Amino acid sequence: MPKRKESSTNSQNEKYVLECDLAYAVCKIGGRWKIIILGKLESGKLRFSELRNLIDGITERMLTLQLRELEKEGLVKRTVYAEVPPRVDYELTDIAKDLIPIWRQLENWAVKHKNISANIQ
């Protein structure tokens, strides 16, 4: 049986992400839902159900998966309270708060260029 190559596409991608700061940043907040979730948490702590109600089109499963990833990445803090029924709050970490001016700039860029892209198609 032939030996598997050490430089698989996944390991090459991981290496690139670690070497390229922009790719690293985009991987942390990329995807359809992460930046939306972070934006909703900008105004303060929210419970799972509040987040779900604020984000049109997201399923409970997808919200759960995205929150876990954001927590793992250190962008969202999850606090569980010892109450009956249990209460769980989600909030931005200080690292995520550093991103607020960046996503504001992305919003401004989108406002400026969204109509241009639509007209090209």
UniProtKB/TrEMBL annotation:
Q: Which PROSITE patterns match?
A: HTH_HXLR
**What keywords were assigned to this record?**
DNA-binding, Transcription, Transcription regulation
**What InterPro entries does its record include?**
HTH_HxlR (IPR002577), WH-like_DNA-bd_sf (IPR036388), WH_DNA-bd_sf (IPR036390)
Return the SUPFAM superfamilies for the record. Winged helix' DNA-binding domain
Q: Which domain of life is it from?
A: Bacteria
Which residues belong to any copy of the HTH hxlR-type domain?
A: 20-118
**Record's keyword annotation contains Transcription regulation:** yes
**One Pfam family in the UniProt entry:** HxlR
TM region(s), chain numbering? none
Q: Name one GO molecular function term.
A: DNA binding
Protein's recorded name: Helix-turn-helix transcriptional regulator
Source species, please? Rhizosphaericola mali
